[in-house]
Amino acid sequence: MDITIHTSFLPHDDPDASLAFYRDTLGFEVRSDFGQGKMRWITVGPVGQPDTSILLAPPAADPGVTEDERRTIAEMMAKGTYGWILLATRDLDGTFEKVQAGDAEVVQEPTEQPYGIRDCAFRDPAGNLVRIQSFAEPSGHRFGHGGRRRDHL
Fold first, then answer.
1. Would you give the end-to-end CA distance of the chain in angstroms?
2. What is the predicted pLDDT for the residue at 56?
3. Disulfide-capable partner of 56 in 24, 42, 105, 112 (CB 3.0 to 4.6 Å)?
């Protein structure tokens, strides 16, 4: 089976602020921007990786979502518990400095985690948790496909 991750979803409540964060702070390219006002669907992705994208979308635009569910979604977004994404970089400290300089809310500075990963965390303008990991473990092992260490493949 040949399956890949094409697009992941993250909610936004302010499309312009989310666009500025992903485009200007993280350096992602804008692939599409449809709609108007708060009802915009914006696709962004890392430069040089055209097959991997994030869809920034209004969280409760689905007509099947009830008013109670919309309220719950809004409450979860306000607490930062509705959406999250895990990114990776080869320069965690440099990336942390750049994102921090962009006025993103810092959740965690670069830290060696007990499970062997060095990472940091921010909240995007919608409250989504954005964790950024280093590609290398402290021991120098690198992760490959499926999260397995390459020296064990």
1. 18
2. 97
3. 42
Cα gap 57→128, rounded to integer Å: 12
Coil/strand/helix, residue 41: strand
Whole-structure pTM value: 0.83
Among candidate residues 118, 55, 108, the one with its CA nearest the CA of residue 80 = 108
Cβ atoms of 76 and 30 closer than 8 Å: no
Q: Single out the residue of 149, 90, 122 nearest to residue 21, CA to CA.
A: 122
CA–CA separation, 100 and 89 (whole Å): 15
Residues 104, 80 contacting (CB under 8 angstroms): no
Largest CA distance in the chain: 50
| CA-based nearest residue to 117, from 85, 145, 73, 149 | 149
The residue type of 85 is: I
Asked whether the beta carbons of 138 and 118 are under 8 A apart, the reply is: yes
Structure-block tokens of residue 137: 């473990």
pLDDT, one tens digit per residue, over 98-116 is: 999 988 899 999 999 999 9
Q: Which two tokens stand for residue 27?
A: 């350096």
DSSP assigned state of 50: T
